[in-house]
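Hi, here's the filled form for the chain we discussed.

Project: internal
Contact: R.S.
Residues: 105
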Amino acid sequence: MGPLVTWGGSYIVQTGIYTNPPAPLIVGIPNGLFTLLILIGSGALEIDACRAVGKITLVLLVGIKNTKYVVYASIAIMYLSIIISTALHYLPTFHWYHYYSFHAH
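And the returned structure, exactly as it came back:
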């Protein structure tokens, strides 16, 4: 669930191309960060139980008050990677104005 899985597990298997690693790596960043956010949410809900048994989670390592900065940074990086992926034509774009102007006639 992230850049390496996107590159190794999907891109190479489907295309057979081992070059051009930036494309699948950048496109896979939102998937990896979304998985991180799910794990952070789970760790935040179970923080007392994890602390009681000595389990180390990211929320415990960073601290509950600083976890929000990790979440904010993750979301910002997710959006930034989508913008970069679209600008570099790694992701397809949908031109809604062409779609609606074509079908309006």
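Let me know if anything looks off before we file it.
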